[in-house]
């Protein structure tokens, strides 16, 4: 850990730091919110340490260790001084010409300034003159007494409490240690009942939340050996709590112990069983127990007829259990419970947990059985009663749009069978939203749709597409497993993007409530990783057409209804305004290219490489990777720098040639001998070859072929005046450069590499 920074104005240590001891601070509270405990513990320890460091109470070798259990936040800091060192502080007062008159006497302004520092006219003689820019200034030197630990810790503790990342605080009344017991209130994440502050073996006299620091804490509610638990010194905190309080205070140690016990319990059962891996669940359970004890429980095997995703979710989300999977990843009828007590006979604990989970599993089985009595097709009509967005209609209306978009995408891929399957999957993709199971467990949307589709006898690729159309849900998630799923997923995400953009719900800063950035990245991943030969502009235009027409039609109906109610046609003009008046496919395309640029940079491509490719707005995103590979290979050639510079020069010349009509036709008669004819001949040989390689998709070979033009291009610019006064020759040379410029920039804008 770092040492203390000097104060502004120039600070010099005057004395050596006093002898150091280790420090312990603990807040003992009622049960803290488990999902926030890890962050609360880290924040409490980190802020308190930084505040001590800022006040010069730590050394460069000081380090801190956080502790967090359901009923405590604590921190152990090494090498903390009883008092910070005194420091010499040199502070600028004012320019000499302002502070002293012509006779060298102090001005009223200087005397007033000195008074603010607790000094009088006698200090004038001791002021130092030092250069300050172009003039001299007066500086007042004084010694600042180092803060005592009691002072510094009081400030650090208040800051650590104030900066805890608490979404909601509780207000409660103090019964003791305040002016008005029962009336004075404080605010904290949970009521606090104890404060410990030990510097070595000495109590530091600080207060917080109406509590006076001492050396006593409390252990496990039921299994502590003694209560309260006295702490001899700061260093014995964790060991004393474990021995006398039956508490593992360290969050990290407790988490590791739970993971070890889970693995050991699964291994003891045998058969290759393993506890389900879930880091968030492990963190939450760690925050719920102080003395973990893993027990093996089971339920009736008949419940395994229910899709395992349902059973796993209810056990994890509702009961915080760890389901056991076999070697093939299939759910078994056994599960692991992390208990907070260690009785000699755990049968009552095991039986209680088994009784608690049984109704949950029975509910899941009931929902599954009931849902299968109706087909997904019969549920389509019910989506018309589910509101999607007040400006975009119901889920039923949205499904109609997604279905039309899926049909258009499948048609662009040129497969009649794909069109039919994609339409069917898109029509049924949202129907599980109106099932009992998804109503109880929204996380299972899509997953249950697949099970019910298979139950209805639908083709496997349609069932898989119903589940997969939400993918990718997050960074690193898998993509839909078949083309039908990819088409429906694209349609679903693009409909969301166009719809939300159309009503003005765009992401701002770090806020993206409708996850539009994630949707855009999902579209990019599918186009790229599935190598779909779809032009982005064509794709977006087809989506815009579908959404615009659907929303415009819906707006007309609403306007007519409004007119009937109001008896006026005024509302008709407002409501029938075209849905996408201010939104164009170009705006959404820009958003997608921005997301693509960020993704490519994260993959290790340089900003110049990414800019060179994306500035050309390549329509087929599946080809972007090949273009980047080609650009990187080209940049490594010895001719690259010269050609990139020449490309930039040609671009500038062509931008300024607006007064001459330039086409891409060169008259050989007007090509003069020398460097111009040499470039013309080289281009006739190289450009057709580079174009052919580009058309075949060999972008690397295409760019490397152009490297042969370096010498003739350099010679051309050295020996030829492009903007000659002869208008026909000038036009011909500009046409020659236009052909060259277009050939050089088909793969990427090479000028970006200059």
List its salient traits.
single chain; 754 residues; alpha+beta; five-stranded antiparallel β-sheet; four-stranded antiparallel β-sheet; 21 strands; disordered N terminus
**Low-confidence runs of at least 5 consecutive residues:** 1-16, 564-580
Q: What class would the helix/strand composition place it in?
A: alpha+beta
Rg, alpha carbons: 37 Å
* Structure annotation, total helices: 26
Strand order of the largest sheet: 3-4-2-10-11
Mean pLDDT: 88
* Straight-line N-to-C gap: 43 Å
The biggest beta sheet is recorded as: 5 strands, antiparallel
> What sort of overall outline do the alpha carbons produce when their principal axes are compared?
flat
Strand content: 5-15%
State the total count of DSSP E strands. Answer: 21
The percent range for helix content is 40-55%
């Amino acid at each position: 850990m770092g040492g203390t920074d000097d104060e502004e104005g120039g600070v010099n240590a005057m004395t050596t730091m006093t002898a150091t001891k280790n420090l312990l601070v603990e807040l003992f509270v009622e049960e803290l919110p488990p999902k926030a405990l890890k962050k609360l513990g880290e924040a409490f320890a980190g802020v308190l340490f930084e505040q001590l460091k800022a006040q010069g109470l730590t050394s460069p070798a000081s380090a801190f260790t956080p502790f967090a259990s359901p009923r405590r936040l604590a921190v152990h800091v090494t090498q903390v001084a009883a008092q910070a060192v005194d420091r010499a502080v040199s502070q600028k007062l004012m320019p000499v010409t302002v502070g002293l008159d012509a006779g060298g006497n102090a001005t009223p302004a200087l005397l007033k300034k000195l008074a603010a520092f607790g000094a009088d006219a006698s200090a004038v003689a001791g002021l130092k003159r030092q250069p300050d820019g172009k003039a001299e200034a007066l500086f007042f030197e004084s010694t600042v007494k180092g803060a005592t630990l009691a002072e510094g810790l009081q400030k650090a503790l208040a800051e650590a409490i104030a900066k805890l990342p608490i979404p909601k605080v509780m207000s409660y009344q103090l019964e003791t240690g305040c002016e008005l017991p029962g009336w004075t209130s404080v605010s904290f994440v949970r009521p606090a009942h104890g404060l410990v502050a030990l510097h070595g073996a000495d109590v530091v006299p600080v207060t917080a939340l109406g509590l006076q620091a001492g050396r006593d804490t409390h252990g496990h509610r039921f299994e502590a050996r003694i209560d309260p638990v006295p702490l001899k010194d700061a260093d014995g905190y964790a060991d004393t709590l474990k021995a006398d309080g039956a508490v593992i205070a360290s969050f990290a140690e407790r988490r590791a112990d739970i993971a070890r016990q889970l693995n050991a319990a699964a291994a003891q059962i045998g058969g290759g069983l393993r506890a389900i891996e879930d880091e968030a669940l492990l963190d939450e359970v760690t925050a719920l127990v102080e003395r973990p004890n893993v027990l093996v429980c089971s339920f009736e095997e008949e419940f395994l007829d229910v899709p395992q995703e349902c059973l796993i979710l209810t056990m994890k989300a509702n009961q915080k259990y760890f389901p056991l999977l076999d070697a093939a990843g299939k759910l078994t009828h056994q599960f692991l419970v992390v208990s907070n007590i260690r009785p000699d006979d755990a049968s009552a604990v095991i039986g209680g947990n088994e009784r608690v989970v049984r109704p949950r599993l029975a509910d899941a089985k009931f929902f599954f059985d009931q849902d299968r009595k109706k087909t997904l097709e019969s549920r389509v009509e019910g989506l018309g009663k589910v509101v999607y967005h007040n400006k975009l209609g119901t889920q039923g209306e949205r499904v109609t749009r997604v279905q039309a978009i899926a049909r258009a995408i499948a048609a662009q891929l040129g497969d009649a069978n794909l069109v039919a399957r994609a339409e069917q999957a898109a029509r049924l993709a949202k129907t599980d939203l109106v099932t009992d199971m998804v109503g109880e467990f929204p996380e299972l949307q899509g997953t249950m749709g697949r099970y019910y589709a298979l139950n209805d006898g639908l083709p496997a690729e349609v069932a898989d597409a119903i589940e997969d159309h939400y993918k990718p849900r997050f960074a690193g998630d898998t993509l839909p497993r078949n083309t039908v799923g990819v088409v429906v997923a694209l349609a679903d995400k693009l409909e969301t993007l166009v719809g939300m953009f159309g009503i003005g719900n765009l992401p701002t800063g770090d806020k993206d409530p409708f996850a539009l950035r994630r949707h855009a990245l999902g579209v990019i991943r599918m186009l790229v990783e599935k190598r779909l030969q779809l032009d982005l502009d064509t794709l977006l235009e087809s989506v815009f057409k579908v959404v615009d027409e659907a929303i415009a039609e819906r707006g007309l109906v609403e306007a007519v209804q409004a007119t009937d109610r109001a008896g006026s046609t005024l509302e008709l003009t407002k409501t029938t305004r075209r849905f996408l008046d201010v939104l164009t496919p170009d705006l959404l395309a820009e958003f997608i290219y921005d997301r693509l640029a960020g993704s490519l940079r994260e993959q290790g491509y340089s900003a110049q490489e990414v800019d060179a490719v994306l500035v050309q707005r390549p329509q087929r995103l599946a080809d972007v990777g090949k273009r980047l590979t080609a650009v990187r290979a080209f940049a490594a050639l010895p001719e690259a720098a010269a050609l990139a510079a020449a490309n930039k020069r040609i671009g500038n010349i062509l931008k300024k040639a607006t007064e001459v009509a330039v086409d891409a036709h060169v008259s050989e008669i007007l090509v003069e001998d020398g460097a111009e004819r040499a470039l013309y001949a080289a281009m006739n040989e190289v450009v057709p070859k580079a174009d052919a390689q580009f058309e075949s998709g060999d972008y690397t070979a295409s760019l490397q072929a152009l490297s042969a033009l370096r010498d003739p291009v350099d010679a051309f610019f050295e020996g030829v005046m492009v903007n000659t006064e002869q208008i026909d020759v000038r036009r011909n040379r500009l046409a020659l450069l236009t052909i060259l410029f277009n050939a050089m920039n088909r793969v990427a804008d090479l000028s970006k590499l200059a």
